[in-house]
Specification:
Structural class: mainly beta
Number of helices: 1
Distance between the termini: 24 Å
Strand order of the largest sheet: 1-2-3
Shape: globular
Largest sheet: 3 strands, antiparallel
Helix content: under 10%
Strand content: 35-45%
């Protein structure tokens, strides 16, 4: 596992076409903005979708940043 420190506004570039940005830090929570091609599935780590659910992904984008899925 690679562990990095980032400040608000700093970004990571993954595989040349996925950007992860630290949007906000508040207490022990951070908000991340993710910009990725539409064919890239993004799920929270604690979610383990069934095969049927894995086919359904709702993405909410505000100001060019993924805010929910």
């Amino acid at each position: 596992m690679l562990v990095l420190s980032r400040k608000v506004g700093e970004k990571l570039l993954l595989d040349g076409n996925i950007t992860v940005e630290v949007v906000k830090i508040q207490g022990n929570r951070i908000s991340l903005g993710i910009v990725a091609p539409s064919n890239v599935k993004i799920l929270r780590g604690e979610l383990k979708p069934t095969a049927a659910e894995a086919q359904i992904v709702e993405i909410v984008v505000e100001d060019g940043l993924l805010v929910a899925c």
